[in-house]
Amino acid sequence: MYRTGKSNFPARTDVYIALERKLVAMQQAGSLPDAVTFAGNGEPTVHPEFAGIIFDTVSLRDRYAPQSKISVLSNATMLYRQEVVNALRHTDMPILKLDSAIDATLELLNRPAKKVAVSQLIEQLKLLGDNCIVQTMFLRGTYLNRTVDNTTAEEVTAWESAILAIRPKLVTIYTIARDTPVETLYKISGDRLKEIAELIEKHGIPVQVSE
After folding, report:
1. How many C-beta neighbours within 10 Å does residue 36 have?
2. Per-residue CA distances from 209 to 68, 137, 149, 163, 192 (Å)
3. Contact 191, 153 (CB under 8 A)
4. How many whole angstroms separate alpha carbon 131 and alpha carbon 112?
5. What are the strands of the beta sheet with 139-143, ordered from one edge?
6. Under a CB-based contact definition with an 8 Å cutoff, are residues 23 and 32 in contact?
7. Distance (Å, rounded) from C-alpha 81 to C-alpha 72?
8. Contact between 125 and 166 (Cβ < 8 Å)
């Protein structure tokens, strides 16, 4: 979606042209995408023309690939901007991160450029209601000389309460899948992930587990 540094944001028109060319080529090849996804090395929603790009994408999708979904992977920190919320409402799969419902843990895990209180984040996620997908990575270990474990009873209870307040259409949970730059962080067992999933599923909210 973008490169680091405000001067390197691609222009809205450039994104439009590139996406249209790609969809036309895929249409001609008879191989349209299952989804058009905004992700990459950074946060898509910080683009100053994010909303316009999403609306352009909806228009192009409807014209060339009406069966394709539009997906956005976001850390949810820009939901205080109403235009971002409105744009995400027009996507099929707004996938929003919530790695902890405890402020100190969330800050340690995500290292946000702008500090966001969990209570504020939950209220912002509630604006999307049952159109959003909440994504959480569970792990344990040490980071910056501090113990981190978002699978403790306290952490999971707080996280469960947050999910019930948000009521997303889907929750996806996962753990570390590959080596990380931080060697003191460790993956969570599949059995523990399934236990956490069951806490949410019993409330009628589907959960997708990736081990």
Report:
1. 21
2. 23, 10, 18, 15, 11
3. no
4. 24
5. 146-149, 139-143, 185-187
6. yes
7. 16
8. yes
Q: Which amino acid is at 162?
A: A
Phi, psi of 117 (to 5 degrees): -75, 140
CB 77 within 8 A of CB 112: yes
Q: 36: closest CA among 62, 6, 11?
A: 62
Instruction: Determine the average pLDDT of the residues in 202-210.
Output: 97
Answer yes or no: CATH 3.40.50.720 is held by domain 98-211.
no
What's the CA gap between 86 and 159, in Å, rounded? 25
How much of the chain, in percent, has pLDDT values that exceed 90? Answer: 80
Tokens of 99: 């790695």
Report the Cα 185 to chain-centroid distance in Å: 21
First to last CA, the chain: 27
Domain boundaries, the chain: 1-93, 98-211
pLDDT per position as a tens digit, 166-205: 999 999 999 998 666 678 899 999 999 999 999 999 999 9
Q: How far is CA 110 from CA 75, 76, 105, in A?
A: 8, 11, 8
Q: Is the pLDDT of residue 1 over 50?
A: no
- CB-CB neighbours of 155 under 10 Å: 20
The burial of 57, by beta-carbon neighbours within 10 Å (0-12 exposed, 13-18 middle, 19 or more buried), is given as buried
Structure tokens at 67: 């069966």
Cβ atoms < 10 Å from Cβ of 118: 19
